[in-house]
Amino acid sequence: MKPYPESTIAAIATAPGAGGIGVVRVSGPQSAIILDSIFSPLGKNPQSFPRELCLGKVLNKKGQIIDEVLAVYMPAPNSYTAEDVVELQGHGGVVVTKELLRATLQAGATLAQPGEFTQRAFLNGRLDLSQAEAVQEIIQAKTPQALLLAQGQLSGALGQAIKAQADTLLDILALIEVAVDYPEEEDHLLGKKAGQVAESLALVEEALNQLLAGAESGRIYREGLTVALVGPVNAGKSSLLNALLQEERAIVTAIPGTTRDTIEEYYNLAGIPLKLVDTAGIRETADPVEAIGVERSKQAAKTADVLLLVLDAEEAPPQTDQKEDLQNQMPSFLFSQAPLIVAVNKTDKSKPDNLLAWAKKQYPEAKVLAISAALGEGLEELKEALSEIAFAGSEPGPSKSAAVNLRQEQALTAAANQVKAAKEALEAGISIDMVSIDIQGAWQSLGEITGESATDDIIQRVFANYCLGK
Question: I need a surface site. Which of 205, 282, 391, 422 has the fewest CB within 10 A?
Answer without folding.
Answer: 391
